[in-house]
Amino acid sequence: MSGRIHATRTSAPAVLFVDHTAMMGGAQHSLLDIAEAHRERGAIALLEDGPFAAALEARGVRVIRVGGGGALRRIKKTSVFPGIGALAAVARMSRAVARAARPFDLLYANSPKSFFVAALAGAIARKPVVWHLRDILGQGHFSGANVRAVIFAANWRAARVVANSRATADAFVAAGGRPSLVTVVHNGIDPSPFDALAPDTCREVRAELGIPADAYVVGCFSRLHPWKGQSVLLDAVARMPGVHALIAGGALFSGEAPYEAELRARAALPSYAGRIHMLGARDDVPRLLAACDVVVHASVLAEPFGRVLVEAMLAGRPVVATSAGGVPEVVTDGETGVLVPPGDAPALGEALHALRRDATRAAALARRGSAHARQRFSRSAMLAGVRRVIDEVAA
Ligand code: UDP
Ligand code: GLC
Known about the structure:
Helix content: 40-55%
Strand content: 5-15%
Number of helices: 17
Radius of gyration: 21 Å
Shape: globular
Number of strands: 13
Mean pLDDT: 94
Order of helices and strands: EHEHEHHEHEHEHEHHEHEHEHEHEHEHHH
Strand order of the largest sheet: 3-2-1-4-5-6-7
Largest sheet: 7 strands, parallel
Bound molecules: uridine-5'-diphosphate, alpha-D-glucopyranose
Structural class: alpha/beta
Low-confidence stretches: 1-8
């Protein structure tokens, strides 16, 4: 590129990332890598304090604790009116983020709630705002009122929208978002923690969990929320004598606790004979994956992307996933995994049976999945995609 004024930027733009939660969901795992790549001139404004703040600091990212996010917890994805208290809190947080934004070139929001705050902050501080959209707007995930509010804010104030899948991008446009704003950047994941696993990890983890070494083990790694579909997996496993299910994930967000209680009560039923292992939120997912024969992703609503699918493939495990949202962009049925309809326990059970019966096919799927994950979902490709958008906006 020559003769263009913007072609000579050498150092990365100074980015102020913004997130509303400090719990570690997939969106936060992904932003951890992105914020780390920009830590030299970047920082993150968090509207809540918690494990994400500590994880960012451990990676050398400066965290600005804005606070006030507690008021946002009361705005449910499906609520219609946020309430006066929440609106006042948004105004307060926006002013605080605007003050923090002064030394930065742009704001980069990681969630709908933080985008809303960042859009207002960007208007006050006169800074461009990028929104990393990791949610399917609509399709049962959000109320119409919430979708209209963030779409209005995006069309008004977003310099760009980075969508974590084509499906996420399409839902944004279908909801009225301006198509020219959107760039798809798939998640990318560093394979090294998976490659570093010792060969006897499977045996070791099973011994720890009290799972027989020769059992058939199905793993599920998602936060505990009804739309993640763990209950469908329990239905399927109920019809599979001898099969163990390892269910990792916590109830991260308010309102998810009753679902966790329900799953735990079901897991303890005598009919399961101790075959359901509820592990809670774990920070050793790679080694737990190594203890599984197959990994299930059971979301009953459209999954925007599903990092755990890539992680399972990196761990060399075959995946069975529900075919909705961004999942078919990650897993090709019969090629790199098996896709089943969402919310269909008999179909899920049948797919698991078939893989269990045909170990050669399962191994071939896992092998192709692993190669595919490394090639298509590398961390470096994700970072380059994000960097391109940031450079264009800063220019
Ligand atoms: N995860 C974790 N501990 C658990 C369960 C899940 O660290 O007990 C991680 C998992 O490895 C993945 C992320 O949480 O990186 C979940 O991301 P995903 O995109 O699959 O779903 P999300 O929760 O963001 O919708
Ligand atoms: C969100 C989505 C998930 C995606 C993650 C990272 O949490 O629910 O599907 O993988 O963001 O982009």
